[in-house]
Amino acid sequence: MPQQHICSQDVLSKFDAAVSQSYILWTPTSPIHLIDNGFQTLLKFSLLSTQFQFRLCPQFLQKPQLLSGDTERDGSSEKHPIEQANPPPQSDIDNPPHIYHIATLPPDHSLLLNKYCVFRPQYLLLTDSPSRRQCEPLEETDLRAAWTALGLLEGEHIAIYNCGQKAGSSRTHKHLQIFPRPADFTLFPDRRPNETTNVPYVYDIIRFEDVDPTTAGWERIVDEYTACLRRARTGLGIHEGKDVPHNVVLVKGWMVVIPRRKARLGAASANAAGMMGMVWVKTEEELEEWKRHGPSHCLGEFGVRDSCPQRGEGTSRPVSSAR
User: Fold this and answer.
1) How many CB atoms lie within 10 A of CB 1?
2) Which of 125, 81, 80 is nearest to 102 (CA)?
3) By three-state DSSP, how is residue 313 classified?
4) Phi-psi bin for 167: left (phi > 0), alpha (psi -120 to 50), beta?
5) CA–CA distance, 261 with 33 (Å, rounded to integer)
């Protein structure tokens, strides 16, 4: 039987109650818009600079962070450090169901309220098994669960995956984040065909025009995603058997895959949302670091620099479609 839509008012009531009891850390924020001519929209007769959308999130100062090397595996036969410390692996995400649970998404995912939030509300899509790790690529069940959640939530939402510490992950238990799509911010894959995006890193797009993921096509989408990871592995120079750090951004119309070389440049850092121009910073000092380097320069450092960043949809390198 198909699941019912998740009532936004019920979620907000639960969210607000958890905030009032400090189970969820969230404060209202206003976006800080910065212009950077290196990340822009080119029209036929004009040059429009794209705004980066920054949000100051001091609650992230209380968020646990991974130690260096906690999430990447080197392909050796030795056990992962987390597995050595906690046999069998244990979850490092403490979101008790009676406080945070929103929905069960069979066969093996749960939709929870996030404990550290930028938006009201914000979600975790958590794998039920704590042995699933954040350094692993997404599997078909992960993508199906994310797509189901996007369909059950009222309004437009974005799902992101930070695969590995270099991609901005802070926990080891495999999860995606889901949050409302900002109405005042245009993601570059949504720009019109006559616009050229000047994105400073290599990325792949899988579009869903020719396949309906709700009924069929998941095998093809997973094949496309796997092909994206093969290109990412080559671009990053990573040998077989080692993890490929990357970000995934999923909406109802498309999925973007972004190879990652590093998580930070000085105090500036980004997860998948940041790579799309929506940057969440903990302090004013971190914001100033982004300004000092230049937001577009930071994104190029975090990803794999594109030798031809000014490009249109028809000439993206490479562009995939789920056909």
Assistant:
1) 3
2) 125
3) helix
4) alpha
5) 26
Q: pLDDT of 155-188, one tens digit each? A: 999 999 999 999 999 888 999 999 999 988 889 8
* Interatomic CA distance for residues 105 and 102, integer angstroms: 10
Coil, helix or strand for 152?
A: helix
The per-residue pLDDT for range 119-150, each reduced to its tens digit, is 999 999 999 988 889 999 999 999 999 999 99
pTM here? 0.86
How many Å apart are CA 156 and CA 221, to the nearest integer?
21
- Which three-class secondary structure state does DSSP give residue 298? helix
Q: In the chain, which residues have pLDDT < 70? A: 1-3, 37-50, 66-89, 193-197, 210-216, 307-323
Q: What DSSP assignment string belongs to 46-113?
A: -EEEEEEEEEE-GGGGGS--PPTTSS---S-SSPPHHHHHSSSP-------HHHHEEEEETTTEEEEE
Task: Calculate the alpha carbon distances from 181 to 54, 185, 253 in Å.
Answer: 14, 8, 13
Q: Which amino acid is at 225?
A: Y
